[in-house]
Specification:
7% strand; alpha+beta; 11 helices; Cytochrome Bc1 Complex, Chain D, domain 2
């Protein structure tokens, strides 16, 4: 439904390449981009400089200015203005794994625990245990090597403490996207306090010392943190291709005979059939197979908020919560669900949903809440 902590953690393994250093023997992704093992610019066998995708880098001879003079009409067209320092500062909010980009601010862990309880616990639990479908933030250290053989066996628990390689980028994520109902409402100091409390919940030690309630968290402290899985992500060498196909210049495949299959979440069932091309598929909605697409979309997209009532969302099955919704016309309810309303984003956060499927989901939720 929303970008979760788990997704952000996965993103951390694919940092942009910015150095021109020669290749080093590293299997993990270093925190400092200047120490990435593969260069962003290399040379081919003819001595041409090439980018990460192998394209030859040519010198640019066109002088770029703020105003473009059309050769056709002779009129001038302005494409904007030079960004001011204030504009650049407003946009430059990302934080690197090594801590570069962390802003000023400071807060004790005890104060951070209070902020977490007020702003974060409704989704993540008082101790980071997670509520309903929201991410678990604490625990799981030492479980990543587990290989369950059945559904009842212990399995890896991926949390900020057990799975994330670096803590610094989470400042950026929390400050930008959290809390869910009021993103960008936290101060820098509050974010530092929250990070300190999460680190304490995961029993992370810094410079050989435990994190106490009185410990003050600031950018210097965050830069000194080393998480257990810091070397757990293999470096993503962008110069190593995923495939080894050759470019087709003649006798190419007739793309008009190819069938493209789009697979969504559990809202579809793929049934193989015979048809044009080598393989053909028919995608059936679960409505057609008896599953009910409204329920499926609710389970995958809406349950995170409407099961618990987070951020004022009416709880499924609670008649009192839905009483004010029933006073509105069905058309207005559909409009709110599709376009977003109060803390709820358009289509519950999944903008790939069709309007008619959102309406089916609304009908399902209202039927279950009579």
């Amino acid at each position: 439904m929303y970008t979760s902590m788990r997704n952000i953690i996965l993103i951390l393994s694919s940092f942009a390449l910015v150095s021109n250093l020669s290749a080093q023997k590293l299997s993990y992704t270093p925190a400092n981009p200047d120490k990435y093992p593969y260069p962003s610019v290399a040379k081919d066998k003819n001595g041409n400089k090439t980018n990460v995708d192998g394209a030859i880098i040519r010198k640019t001879y066109i002088k770029v200015t703020e105003t473009y003079k059309s050769p056709i009409s002779g009129k001038n067209y302005k494409f904007g203005k030079k960004a001011s320092k204030a504009t650049l500062k407003a946009w430059n909010t990302d934080v690197r794994p090594d801590g570069k980009g962390l802003p000023s601010g400071r807060m004790s862990v005890q104060q951070g625990a209070q902020v977490f309880s007020a702003k974060c616990a409704v989704c993540h639990g008082d101790f980071g245990e997670g509520v309903d479908r929201f991410p678990v933030l604490a625990g799981g250290i030492g479980t990543l090597k587990l290989h369950p053989e059945s559904g009842g066996d212990p399995k890896p628990l991926k949390t900020l403490g057990s799975y994330a390689p670096y803590i610094a980028p989470f400042f950026w994520y929390i400050h930008t996207a959290m809390p869910l109902s009021a993103p960008r409402s936290l101060s820098n100091s509050e974010v530092y306090g929250i990070l300190g409390y999460i680190l304490q919940l995961n029993e992370i030690r810094v410079n050989g010392k435990d994190i106490e309630d009185s410990t003050v968290i600031d950018r210097k402290f965050i830069k000194a943190v080393h998480l257990p899985n810091e070397k757990g992500f293999e470096y993503n060498n962008l110069r190593k291709p995923d495939t080894h196909n050759t470019r087709c210049m003649s006798n190419c495949i007739d793309t008009s005979k190819m069938v493209v299959m789009h697979i969504k979440t559990d809202a579809t069932v793929v049934v193989p059939t015979f048809g044009k091309g080598r393989y053909s598929y028919k995608v059936k909605k679960k409505e057609e197979t008896g599953g009910g697409i409204g329920k499926t979309i609710y389970d995958n997209t809406c349950a995170g908020c409407h099961n618990s009532g987070v951020a004022g969302a009416p709880k499924l099955g609670n008649k009192a919560d839905w009483a004010h919704v029933r006073k509105e016309s069905l058309g207005d309810v559909f409009k709110h669900a599709i376009n977003g309303f109060n803390a709820m984003p358009p289509k519950g956060g999944d903008t790939t949903l069709k309007d008619k499927d959102v309406k089916s989901t609304v009908k399902y939720m209202m039927e279950k809440s009579k």
